[in-house]
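Ticket #4471: structure export looks truncated?
Reporter: QA, pipeline team
Priority: medium

Steps to reproduce: submit the single chain below to the structure queue and open the exported record.
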Amino acid sequence: MSKNNFICWIPDQELSLNLEKGKRIYFLSDVHLGAPVLTNHRERELQLVAWLESIRPDCGMLCLLGDIFDFWFEYKRAIPKGHTRFLAKICEYTDQGIPVHFFTGNHDIWTFDYLSRECGIVLHTHNEIFRINDKSLLVGHGDALNPKDKGYLLLYRTFHNCFLQRCFRWIHPDLGILLAQKWSSHSRLGNGKIEADSFRGEEQEEIIRFCRQALATRHFDYFIFGHRHFPMDFPLSDNSRYINTGDWISWFTYAVFDGETATLKTKE
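Actual output as written to the record:
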């Protein structure tokens, strides 16, 4: 995996997939199930489960692009409680043979092997390149793309440090989850609103800047990311687009790829 001043990781290899005719790939991110600043947890989870059921007939693959949970940490013998309906629906997908790819976000980076073993998901801890029907897609959560954001990159490295992760496991889950919820309350979400709810301009959008730099090294038909909490379908060139899946807090948006074209949609 190549690195360029830590702006992002572009995998050296790509995953080749065949999408059956009539099937689609669905992408969503930033649900933040269990966010302490939000009060409609059950309602949003039920909406998500209903949406997953509605797309199941034509879903050839589901990509969850991070921050699906507001906090997720796998202790040796415990996981955060809740989210039962959502996890059960994911198990229905994988039991049926529908691949589910889970990309860790900055709120659920401590996803290790529980969801893989119990729910059958394919876990990704970094960006991936998918080659599908002759189209090239770079897919990931979308954080840690700005090499000048030293504070965030330090936090990123800290949270990904294996030794510190093992140390956190020694904290009792009741206390560990409480501390994580306190931290989350002072992060990107506040009073149930997203922090950045408008387009900042091309030069101020970190993911757009990264996409342009990536295109200088090789062609991608689509860049599909989350993290930003603002839905976007942005043309980078005549034959390349950046799509941000938005969130399931304010926008309830997602992306769909039919083998030829990726589009941004809103839940009906």
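Status: closed, not a bug. The export was complete when the record was re-opened. Leaving a note from the reviewer for reference: Helices lie at 41-55, 84-96, 114-119, 150-159, 162-168, 173-185, 206-215.
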